[in-house]
Amino acid sequence: MSKRVLIFDDDIDILSICTYILEEQGWEVQTSSHCNNIIETVRGFMPNVILMDNWIPDTGGVIATQTIKKDETLKDIPVIYFSANNDIQTLARQAGADTYLEKPFDLNELEAVIEGVANGKARAV
């Protein structure tokens, strides 16, 4: 089974750290610093897991996640909402994300959450 993760975040440092860590774990990683044309971006890669930042330009993570979840072909891809907001759980629920990860996170937590949703075991929002 291929392990593909698509990361939406406008913080280049977070993208490079996550890419490095996940590639070490055998994931194929694609990143985007915005969520414009999100359906095309996701369809073009068809990831097993999506990491979605709250403050992603232009529309933001809530709308971007809702857009994915409304699409028949993409709605079953698990979305991990990640943000430094203290109301991240509320935002993740509003977005329709499968689970969430608070920033700053440690790298073991990142791996555990991604592996968890990939295996159908997400922490509920």
Summarize the structure.
The chain is α/β, with parallel strands linked by helices and 125 residues long. The protein is built from five helices and five strands.
Describe what this molecule looks like in 3D.
The longest helix is centred in the N-terminal third of the chain and has 13 residues. Strand 1, helix 1 and strand 2 form a beta-alpha-beta unit. The chain is an alpha/beta fold and 125 residues long. The chain has one domain: Rossmann fold, CATH 3.40.50. A five-stranded parallel β-sheet has the order 2-1-3-4-5, with helices on both faces. It has five helices and five strands; from the N terminus they run βαβαβαβαβα. Helix 3 packs parallel to helix 4.
What is the terminal separation in angstroms?
27 Å
Mean pLDDT: 94
- Helical proportion, percent range: 40-55%
β content, as a range?
Answer: 15-25%
CATH-derived architecture? 3-Layer(aba) Sandwich
Number of strands: 5
H/E element sequence: EHEHEHEHEH
User: Which structural class fits the helix and strand makeup?
Assistant: alpha/beta
What is the CATH first-level class name? Alpha Beta
Q: What would the CATH topology be?
A: Rossmann fold
The low-confidence runs, each spanning 5 or more residues with pLDDT under 50, are none
CATH superfamily: Response regulator
